[in-house]
């Protein structure tokens, strides 16, 4: 993760964005949250996901089936003996979560599984 963004984060946010951790399922503040707006990166404020891409997956973390063009970088993650695709912020390179395909949750058949602690919600109605 890029150095200049780290200092703004608290301890919990660092454990996710910097160290690639995962918040406990069903605990994140955006897990069951469906207002209209945009989700930006917690550390660098880059827009990442629109609320229209958010869907109820029941997996315990905020789930999106699409991402704002060019906002994220995908990386292969071989931890825990599994092959997964990690998603990180394209600007600050903070850890966001993982992306899964082929689960048939939505027409796009993609689930970005993201930690609430990696996100900040900005409401459309200001
Ligand atoms: Zn970022």
Q: Mind explaining what this structure looks like?
A:
It is a single chain. By secondary structure, the chain is mostly beta strands. It has 2 helices and 9 strands. It is globular. The site of zinc ion (ZN) has 8 residues, from loops.
- CATH superfamily, by name, is Peptide methionine sulfoxide reductase
* Fraction of helical residues: under 10%
Spatial order of the strands in the main sheet? 3-4-8-7-6-5
- Low-confidence stretches are none
Structural class: mainly beta
Query: How many β-strand runs?
Result: 9
Distance between the termini: 31 Å
The main sheet comes to: 6 strands, antiparallel
Summarize it.
Helices cover 10% and strands 33% of the residues. It has 126 residues and is mainly beta.
Give the helices and strands, then pairings:
Elements: H1 3-6, H2 11-18, E1 37-41, E2 47-50, E3 54-55, E4 63-64, E5 72-77, E6 84-89, E7 95-101, E8 110-114, E9 119-123
Antiparallel strand pairs: 1-2, 1-9, 3-4, 4-8, 5-6, 6-7, 7-8
This protein binds zinc ion.
